[in-house]
Amino acid sequence: MKTCTKCKESKELSEFAKDCKIKSGLKSRCKACQTIDRREYRERNREKINADRKAYRETHKEQLKASKDKWVNSNRDKVRAYNNQYVKGKTRTNEDRRKANEYKREYNKRPGVKHKCKARYNLTNSVSLGHTVKPNTCEICGVHDNSLHGHHWSYEEVNWLSVVWCCNDCHVQIHRDINDNK
Known about the structure:
Layout: E1 2-3, E2 10-11, E3 16-18, E4 26-30, H1 31-44, H2 46-59, H3 61-74, H4 76-89, H5 94-108, H6 113-129, E5 149-152, E6 163-166, H7 168-181
Antiparallel strand pairs: 1-2, 3-4, 5-6
């Protein structure tokens, strides 16, 4: 039996995590109190933790991709099973299809939607035919990305092919800024 220094309760030794730095070989706080402490720390320092994680992902992009690719290649059966399960969960009923079609009809009645669709369609065709060259780097932040978005500043017909090629993060930020200014 050992007493936790935080909750002051006497508990079994299995309720304490191991710590080779301490003489007894066990932490002074029980596992339950440590869980509470970690949760409180994460809540207090959420922004710092997210910033650290983002910085790590940015600096270790190649390593993370290699690790993910290695795991996917060695676990093809798990990936296939997950994908099949995901597709099964996404099967739609006739009622779902009817609602989706109704939503599309209502959406297409909104002003400006037809111009957006036509602009996207013409840009996609222009890229696939080779008339417009899609770069590999974001024009805003300079990140190399093969899945760049073409952001239209205007949906007028004369501007359908004049776009800013940007990564997903920059494209989302552009739209956030636009929505904030409304």
